Amino acid sequence: MLFNTLSKYFEKLETTSKRLELVDILSKLFIESDSAEIGKICYLIQGRVAPFFEPVEMGMAESTIAQAVGKAFGRHKEDVIKSYRKLGNMGLAAKELATKAKRLTIKALSVSEVFGELRKIADYSGEGTVEKKVSTLAELLKKLDPISVKHVVNIPLGTLRLGIGDPTVMDALSLAKHGDKSLRPVIENAYNKTSDLGYVAETFFKKGISGIKNIKLVVGKPIRPALAERLPSAEEAVKRLGQEFAAEPKFDGFRVQVHLDRTRRQAGPVSSFPPASARSSKRSPQPDSESVDLRAVGSPSTAATRQPFVQLYSRNLENTTHAFPDLVKGVIEEVGAKIAILEGEAIAYNPQTEEFLPFQETTKRRRKYKIEEMAQKLPLVMFAFDLLYLNGKDISVQPYRERRKLLESIVKKDGKVVRLAEERVLHKAEDISKFFNEAISEGLEGLMLKKLDSPYVAGGRGFHWIKFKRAQSGELTDTVDCVLLGVYSGRGKRTAFGVGGLLVGVYDEKRDEFVTISRVGTGLTDEEFRKVNEISKHLRLSHKPARVNSKIEPSFWIEPKIVLEIYADEITRSPVHTAGWDPSTGSGFALRFPRLVKFREADKRAEDATTVKEVKKLYQNQFKKGR
Ligand code: AMP
């Protein structure tokens, strides 16, 4: 396919935010694509040249892009920046300059050719990197027609905002190849195992349905984590779990998925952090910010080291390998397997008193600077609770009890860094209450109850895992993970913070959209308001983002990326909010007296927020408790 054809599809996709139309346009694009380019197209749609979990970044900011655009079309960099300021988008500025320029070199480049050049730009490292990136991009732009120029320029800047979620791509793949959306579950299953839509799409195009049915776990491709359900009481949990079930403490740290392969070597020096590409990338961390986007952080694709291959992924599948050198070392020294994928929860402890620290302390480890210093100050222990892959075999399909046995054979109870999570096999509701109280008195968050005969359900919530969290005072037994959808400008004292109120929503998994559930005006400290402003500044939009369904209009919309854990007294129905909208009553769900518990921007993706289905259950559970 010509890149120009793809660009024309991007133009069409930009004109709509309606999901059905997006699926329809995408499926037409996929019908025109062949198996050699479909994977690349899936990455490009997300503005990437690799799957999102690979730390491959273009490493070009506005000023270097302006330099490349100027070089391509015979303009000064300042002219480009002026035009960019006028039009508000670098792609549009470049398109305008490309249209005006007298050019003889326009060529019909294919998607694969353009992808290859962009990947080359991302992969440059070492001396003279910036010059090489600028001249390669300028040469590429010179050859492209104006519409293609617009989109190519927006890719390195991360401003190619088509607003297409993974479920939309999966529906479109099914529609393109099968004429309807019925293959979505099969595609999703393969995606849950690898998190790599490009890889799944390419396999689907090359090997058909049986090919994707056969997709197994791959070391180096993160698995979408299994998620837990909630229930209102221990009795209800026993009903779901049966006569015999497992219980583990629920540690309040952050989830880590470890990929170890001693037959491969780690790429890049582990100590160089962050990689050069991440330092100059738009997505890269702001030096003054402790908030985390570790996506840009990981092993650079440079020479292999002598160290075995170890990659760490967060709950939202960001590559966090370089943030935790102490965990990497612990895995190499303590895990008794040649090849393995295991999961655990990492918690920081005080090295003097050996006491485990609360979440607010542990989360300080999720940063990009002073890594080694923080590793000394707040060392981590990872409590391993599951094993998914062992020595060449995908064991995620085996029952939990078998996986646990294998986990016990490779991780020690008293490991220094990697330690086996305690597990008890229980039978009754009283057993749960007893263990729960013990866990709480030890400062843990609660319990995780697990079905003994369940496989690992990648990317899925189900009653194979049930979480029991410490109830906060008030009526709701659990918090709601909300997505930040908008902010209100502050009045009075809050003017200085930049934000005076929040509009938050939850995820409607059926429609793949975000629906509003609350305005949060009080319930945040001054410091928290400032932090919201800081982490959301670069995600502000003047128009409603695609996939957001709202009846109210904040001062600024925010691209749905930031997850906040919110505690509320109660869930009520309200005509203002769209969560779980019921046309017969003209109302949706709303949170009463919402307040912020913690920022979860680092460990949950917007799509991992609480779902409408869960909110509905929380709403119904309130009544079960006799309210
Ligand atoms: P929540 O984030 O409140 O939905 O609870 C689920 C999270 O609990 C998982 O994503 C893990 O990070 C964490 N967790 C802590 N202990 C365990 C455990 N023993 N088994 C599974 N997950 C655990």
TrEMBL record:
Residues 265-302 are annotated as: Disordered. Its EC number is 6.5.1.1. Its cofactor is Mg(2+). Residues 269-287 have a biased composition (Low complexity). GO terms for molecular function: ATP binding; DNA binding; DNA ligase (ATP) activity; metal ion binding. ATP binds at residues 248, 255, 315, 345, 385, 461, 467. It is an enzyme of class 6 (ligase). It comes from Candidatus Curtissbacteria bacterium GW2011_GWA2_41_24. It comes from the Bacteria. This is Probable DNA ligase. DNA ligase that seals nicks in double-stranded DNA during DNA replication, DNA recombination and DNA repair. Residues 373-496 form the ATP-dependent DNA ligase family profile domain. It catalyses: ATP + (deoxyribonucleotide)n-3'-hydroxyl + 5'-phospho-(deoxyribonucleotide)m = (deoxyribonucleotide)n+m + AMP + diphosphate. The gene is lig. Pfam families: DNA_ligase_A_C, DNA_ligase_A_M, DNA_ligase_A_N.
